[in-house]
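Two proteins were folded this term; both appear here.
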Amino acid sequence: MKEVTLGLVGVGRIGVMHAGNITALNEVLNPEGIKVRLKLTDVAEEHARSVASRFGAEFVGSVTDLIDSGIDGLVVATGTATHPELIHAGVDAGVPVFCEKPVAVNVAESAPVVDYIRENGGTVQIGHQRRFDPGYTEAKRAYDAGELGWIHSLRAVTCDVTPPPVSFLATSGGLFRDCSVHDFDILRWLTGKEIVEVYAKGSNNGDPAIGAVGDVDTALAVVTFDDGTVGTVSASRYNGAGHDVRLELQGSEGSVLVGMDEQLALRSAEAGVAFPAGRPHKTFAERFAQAYRSEMAAFVELVLGARKNPCTPEDAVAASKVADAAQESLEKGVPVKVAP
């Protein structure tokens, strides 16, 4: 039986989720003869020990000790500002790294990290989990197979039920960078086309404190692809109906809608239509639970050399460049070209 030991740094909300998904992989991968072990660390030692006990993992006192203890892959689930240092540590240790997006706090600081990875032969998978969601993967299959014909319109939606704390928004870089960047990534991944221009507008009708820290609570971006195709990316922090994530692709031969299931956070205004009848998702973790599990399984396959990197640092930086252009457009009120 093959054994894979992953080291997890950071056990906040998303780190705890990753810990659970990593340990659950044994149920999925054991039939294939793969045993996954987990070691973890966090500066909040008492909490980290509790998480380790909960998931049958081993607590290690520091990042250095974690890497020195003998791991096959490093999972980074800490704050964005720490990502470059931890990516460097994993690359220096010669182990593949999984890092939550983004690579660094901005594109300028991401560039030298990407260069370092490339120059030192590192392998780093960035966490854009929508690439593993069954709906998005089916839409990509249909698009690649030519079932939709040529695409004339794309509409992406991401809406949270309630906004995160204002203290987070004050340093997040704005709605496009912390939320819509997932849509920008999935549009590039699904179509294989680059977004070359963005025109953005936003509004603030919720908590005035969000505007006070320079953010908006609702935004819309019109994006233009390198072949002239147009699309829209909309986001909101106040969607009381539920966590709503969708992508509509309309083509000359057919159309598909990702996210149209019984838990869709909409109701029909038409008489006699009961769909959707399920309880809407309330959080991103709930909406993408399966995608997060599949994402971590893919990382184990990457560690074992059984697959190519499903989301490179270059991919993540490309999506961040679109988000930067959207934020600049929002601030200036004019269309902005995306940096090559």
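Next, the second protein.
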Amino acid sequence: MDLDRRTLLTRATCALGAGVVAASCGSEDQAAAGSADRAAWESYWAGIRRQFPLNTDDVHLSAMLIASHPQPVRQAIEWHRRALDASPAGYLQDNNGRLREAALAAAGRYMGVDPRDIALTDSTTMGVALVYNGLMLRPGEEVLTTEQDYYVTHESLRLAAQRTGARVRKIALYEDIRQVTPESLAERVLQEIRPETRVLALTWVHSSTGLKIPVRMIADGLARINASRSPETQVLFGLDGVHGFGNQNQMFGSLGCDFFMAGCHKWLFGPRGTGIIVATPRGWAALRPSIPSFIDGESWTAWFENREPQGASTAARMTPGGFKPYEHQWALAEAFAFHEGIGPHLVQTRTEELATQLKEGLARMPNVTLQTPRRPDLSAGIVSFDVKGMTPAAVVKMLKERRIIASVAPYATRHVRLTPCIYNSPADIERALREVRAVAMV
């Protein structure tokens, strides 16, 4: 890491590939400078890769499932674990509040929100379920979602509808993913908003196809619709954000949603079994808890006084209680600090660079159909594809035998997924492409 992050960020704009630089600069001196920048760029990311204890025999392209911990996170977990083992009750009593607040403060900085608007959870699934099952819906109201959304969203909404009498309506987000544009996706969603629609439940980056939806464009359109509605009939916007969280340079406010749910043990490389809900004050007020909170003072006081808690729900009231894997929750601060130390813009730049290399290579292969849009504004780090005449499971199995770690999308329509991230290199991508090409020719 010879160059500082700011210098790399400035120079990386024209140094993402020596060939690109040479073609655009037009002189040998400029091409040489571009090559030097490229070497520095790759040296920087090689240093990031050394923070992870991943084995070097495999090409690890499944960070979207569960991540390896970088060194600062591993060290923090181990420090807290040893201290808890040495004095479980004592260390917990002396440090839980302080360390939890440090984790929330780090999450708040990363997301650009007040830490008091963040609830700590165990996973994306828990966050999605707490939000959608916590909605105070009424019979006759509806939640709008898409056919392309994931099981966790669909099932949480189904259970919420059972309890409240509200209705869930699913729409097709597109007919042909190869024809989508940000404008067409936003229009498809917004034109389906009805007077009875109370909640819009979407996913930022689809784990099946890797499609990234235009969240801000949809939020802006929703704001125009809400401007003509009374507060109690305005549409709330919930977002499963896990596959953009940690690889896209977007803060909560720039998305424009009311609820954002994500696990921290994927692209953020955070401790396993951790997650967050971020919500606006309007969002928190629209929810009621499903699990008792251990950190909401009003809930405890009301219980002591044998009365109902007063006031609207807050992040603290919506934070599930119970004993936790505390060493993991507390080490969230180091996970956020690790990303901040690199810089979210650099993380997104590197993720897009590697994903573009992978998509372009797959798109040129015979017998391979790329499912993920090639445009960076319509995709993030997930790259999905099919191999003609083979099931996705068979392709993943054959790639694993060739030391390429891929995964299968758990949907009715399944695809093979390769998900490059900041601990991968262009050489990893080329190796993966060689092996996919060999499998596709079998």
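The first strand starts at residue 59 and ends at 60. The two ends are 41 Å apart (CA to CA). These notes refer to the second protein only.
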